[in-house]
What we know:
Blueprint: E1 5-6, E2 9-10, H1 14-28, H2 32-50
Antiparallel strand pairs: 1-2
Helix pairs in contact: 1-2
Amino acid sequence: MSAPEGPEGPEPCRKCQELDLEEAVARSERDGSRETDARVLRRRHTAAEHGKRT
């Protein structure tokens, strides 16, 4: 199921936003392992929930 579309396009996915934030925080803390984990989880989520491959 896709997100409803608004004037600026589809509503952002909350899980995607959380994973992006986790990656950014890990990067700012210079935690490469946690940063990679967040990126992998984001890709898995995107493939499973949005049907997109990156």
